[in-house]
Specification:
Elements (H helix, E strand, L loop, with lengths): L32 E5 L5 H15 L7 H8 L6 H4 E6 L4 E8 L9 E6 L8 H13 L12 E8 L3 H9 L3 E12 L14 E4 L2 H15 L11 H13 L9 E6 L2 E9 L9 E8 L8 H15 L4 E7 L6 H7 L3 E14 L13
Parallel strand pairs: 4-5, 10-11
Antiparallel strand pairs: 1-2, 2-3, 3-4, 5-12, 6-11, 6-12, 7-8, 8-9, 9-10
Length: 362
């Protein structure tokens, strides 16, 4: 995902005043700027800011307004509580931060930071990160006191000002992620399916829940995975994957043995960065069926489907140090690293770490 979508803690007191009070802030807002809460009416301006930053740093349009709207409508998310906007003296939006903690076990409250490049290195990043840390600490009341809680934030490696602000705030670089791409000038080769494995069409009425549960099972081998309540997780999964115009059920591919789903490949009509590209959102194989070529067959099938639809470029995101060796597979089928993201972490309460850090964790 381009941004991690998360829920928030209710704080009725904040609804009384749309101007943020700075009395308890560790970092003061620079002169000639004002800060306020966000609401759904701000989405066009939020989209403009995100698009400007994406074009400057990455050379692509970034997330569509439709996708941002879907994220802000995530179950339980309230921008007035979890988003802060900074405007310049002309009232133009120049920076924002979002705090996402929707999981029923929010041990990793997640930050999304965006600052107009014309206003970088003026202290806006420091102010927003300071506010976000205060906001993230609300999860401590919802998490067992024996458990470790750490804030996390992904930043593109091209955005040095935000990375430096995170380091100043006490964050540590812990991991990297890749945006990988394939550029196709001809139809990709046909997949070779292992004996007993077949491709099955996805039926939203029959398969939605089992696809979600399969996705959860597969990604228990993903760095940072935290097991959550299945009912709440299913609601968020369906909202995230089916709630905007990138959803197409004909781009959800299932590999089965008999009637049992053994692997999934969930694709979107377009990616979070560039509407001209196809996108693979989730690809994985259940443990007993790994190392048999199923993931490669699903990838090739997806590439061919996009090619037939006129898409010549397909992207996906992956942990650079994938516990299951996914990056090697993607390179094998002709994908290359387009750009790198850095994952930062800051412990706000030490304790037992229940998130996955290695295959032995499960």
């Amino acid at each position: 995902m381009g941004r991690l979508k998360i829920d928030c803690v209710t704080d009725p007191g904040w609804k009384q005043d749309r101007i943020v009070k700075e009395d308890t802030m560790k970092t003061k807002l620079p002169d000639n700027y004002s800060v306020r809460m966000a609401n759904m009416e701000d989405l066009p301006e939020i989209h403009r800011l995100e698009q400007k930053a994406s074009l400057h740093y990455l050379g692509v349009p970034g997330m569509s307004l439709e996708r941002i709207k879907n994220e802000y409508q995530s179950p339980g998310f309230n921008p007035e509580q979890s988003v802060r906007l900074i405007e310049d003296q002309d009232g133009t939006l120049v920076a924002l931060v979002e705090v996402w903690d929707e999981s029923d076990l929010p041990v990793h409250p997640y930050l999304w930071l965006s600052v107009d490049q014309e206003h970088k290195d003026r202290g806006l990043e420091d102010y927003l990160i300071s506010w976000a840390e205060d906001r993230a600490r609300q999860v401590l009341e919802r998490v067992d006191p024996e458990l470790k809680v750490a804030m996390r934030c992904h930043i593109s490696s091209e955005i040095d000002s935000s990375q430096q602000a995170l380091l100043r705030a006490g964050f540590t670089e812990i991991r990297h992620g890749f945006r990988m791409r394939i550029e196709m000038d001809s139809m990709p080769p046909a997949p070779v399916w292992p004996e007993g494995i077949q491709l099955k069409p996805y039926d939203p009425k029959k398969h939605a829940r089992v696809v979600y549960e399969t996705d959860e099972e597969i990604f228990q081998d993903h760095f940072g995975f935290v097991k959550e309540d299945l009912e709440e997780g299913f609601k968020r999964f369906m909202h995230h994957f089916t709630g905007d115009d990138s959803y197409d059920p004909n781009l959800w591919f299932l590999a089965v043995e008999g009637e049992e789903i053994v692997a999934i490949c969930i694709c979107r009509r377009y990616g979070s960065e560039d509407p001209s590209t196809g996108y693979i959102s989730s690809l994985g194989v259940r443990r007993p069926w790994r190392r048999r070529g199923i993931a490669q067959a699903l990838l090739l099938h997806a590439f061919r489907e996009f090619y037939q639809r006129g898409k010549r470029v397909v992207d996906l995101g992956v942990d650079a140090e994938s516990l299951t060796g996914a990056t090697d597979l993607y390179k094998k089928v002709g994908m290359f690293v387009l750009r790198q993201f850095v994952l930062y972490d800051k412990v706000i309460r030490p304790g037992k770490d229940i998130s996955v850090t290695g295959l032995a964790d499960n």
